Amino acid sequence: MSDQPSAADEIMNGVYRALRAHGYADATMQDIADECSKSKSLLHYHYDTKEELLVAFLDHVITDSERRIELHADDPPAERLAQFLGWFVFEADAVDREAFHIALLELRTQGPFNERIREQLVRSDRLLRGTVADILASGIEAGVFRDVDVDETAALLVAAVDGARTRQITLSGDVDVGEGSIGGPDDGEDTTGGYDDADSPYTRTVAEATLRRVVEPLLAEGVEIPSLADGIAEMTPEDAGEREDAGEREDAGERGDAGERGDVDE
Amino acid sequence: MSDQPSAADEIMNGVYRALRAHGYADATMQDIADECSKSKSLLHYHYDTKEELLVAFLDHVITDSERRIELHADDPPAERLAQFLGWFVFEADAVDREAFHIALLELRTQGPFNERIREQLVRSDRLLRGTVADILASGIEAGVFRDVDVDETAALLVAAVDGARTRQITLSGDVDVGEGSIGGPDDGEDTTGGYDDADSPYTRTVAEATLRRVVEPLLAEGVEIPSLADGIAEMTPEDAGEREDAGEREDAGERGDAGERGDVDE
Predict the structure, then answer these.
(1) Could you tell me which PROSITE patterns the record lists for this protein (chains A, B) (predicted)?
(2) Distances B40 to A6, A212, B23, B59 between C-alpha atoms, Å
(3) Which fold has domain A7-173+197-261?
(4) What is the ipTM of this complex?
(5) Which CATH number is B7-173+195-261's, of 1.10.10.60, 3.10.450.50, 1.10.760.10, 1.10.357.10?
(6) Which positions in chain B touch A25 (Cβ < 8 Å)?
(7) Tens digit of pLDDT per residue, chain A (266 long)?
(8) Looking at CA atoms only, how far is residue A160 from chain B in angstroms?
C-alpha cells in the first residue's frame, strides 16, 4: 500500500475543501483545482462539468459511509443504534463540519431539479433507513429488541437526527463568511445564536432524546441502554485508523480531512 | 373590511409565487414584480434589495404562523400536539408546497452567512420549540401529560417533522423543472423516487411515528391519543375562513395562495 493518495482521492478531498470554503453554488472548478493542487484542465479531463464532479463526490461520500457502517456491522444491535445516532452529533463550534454540511444542504436543494443528484440522495436515504431497519431487524431476531415496525422506526430516527443537524447548521452564526458576520459575534448579548439558551447543541439534544424516548422503550427486558458517548466515539475521526485497516483508503496524508468529514450526508 | 388585499400582502404573495416558480437563488426582483403585477420600481421603493424583501417575507410567514398557532391556543393540549405534527404533513404530490419549501430550504442555507436571515430563522425556531414546550407545560399542569423534560421533547418533535419534510422535498422528483425531469417520470420502474417503496409520504410516516412513539407515552392514564387526521385537518387551508375571522387578513382574492402556503417554515 502506498502512502500517496490516488489522484481521485486527492480530487475528492479538493471538492470537500472547496465546498467547505465556498459553498455549493459558488465553488468553481478552479476553486476545486486549487484546493487539490491539480490543473483545471486535468479536472475537466476526468469530469466534464461541475455537476458531474459533484455527483462523483456524492458517490464518494456515500461509498465512504457504506464502508463505515460495514465496519460496525458485527457490533451488538443496541450499540449500533447509539453509533448511528452519535454519527450525527457535533458540537456548536465544529465550524468546518458545519460549513461542509451547509454546502451539502445546498446540494440537496438541487434534488428535485437534477436527476443524477437525486439518484445519489435516494441512494443515501436507502442506506440510512436501510441501516437502521437492518439493525432493528437483527436486534429483534436476537431478542434484544421488542417486535416493532422497523421501517417506521427507521424513518423516525433518520428524520430526527437529520432535522437536528439541519437546524443546528442553519441557525448557527459560526461560519465566518459574508456580511452577517461583520460586527463580530459575541459582543455582549447574542441576538442571533439559534440554540444559545441550551447548553447542548441541537444534534446532541435530539440524539439523546431519541435514544431515551424512542430506542429505550424498544429494548427487551434486561438489555442495557447503550451509551451515546460510546456511539459518538465509535463514529468519530479517531477511528480513522480502523478505516485504514480496512485497506480501502490509502490517503494517509489527507486522512485528517477525510476523517473529519466522516459522516453520511445526505 | 375591504375585499382588496393590501399592497404589502400582494407583494408577499408575489414573493411566495416567485419563490415557488424560480427558487430562492434565481428569483429576481423582476420575477416578484411580475408575480404580483407591480412595477419593479415600486418594489424597490419599499424594499431596497432582494435580501430586504426576503427578510420581510420571512417575517410575514412567521407572523402568519404565530397567528395560526394562536388560533388554536385554547384547544386541549393533546390535540394541539397532533395539530403541530399534522401541520408538517403533506402528500407526495403537493407540488406547489414542495417547490415553496425547497426555496425556503435554499433560503435557510443562507442563515450562517446572513445575520438578518438568521434572525428570522432563530425567531421561527423559538416559535416552533416554544410552542411545543408551552403545549407540554400546560398539559402537564392540567394533568393530561406526565412530567417530562419539555425543552428536550420540543427539540425532538421539531427536529423529527422538519427532518421528514426536508427529506420528502429533496428526495422528490415531482418538481417539474430542470434537466432532471426530461424523459418523463413514471416510465416503468422509478429509479429516482425517494420514498417510492412506502405507501405514505415521509412527513406522514414520521408524524404518525412521533405521535405513537413519543407523544403517546407522555399521556397520563386515561387520556386518549389524539388523532393525526384531525390535527392535519385543523391546520390545512380549509381553515382559511377561520383565519379570516381573526380579522387580520383581508386578501380574500389571494387566500388560496396564502392558505395553501399555510405552514411555518423556516
Answers:
(1) HTH_TETR_2
(2) 52, 53, 18, 21
(3) Tetracycline Repressor; domain 2 (1.10.357)
(4) 0.85
(5) 1.10.357.10
(6) 25
(7) 456 778 899 999 999 999 999 999 899 999 999 999 999 999 999 999 999 999 999 999 999 999 999 999 999 999 999 999 999 999 988 999 999 999 999 999 999 999 999 999 999 999 999 999 999 999 999 999 999 999 999 999 999 999 999 999 999 976 544 333 333 333 334 444 455 445 689 999 999 999 999 999 999 999 999 999 999 999 876 544 433 333 333 333 333 344 344 455 55
(8) 4
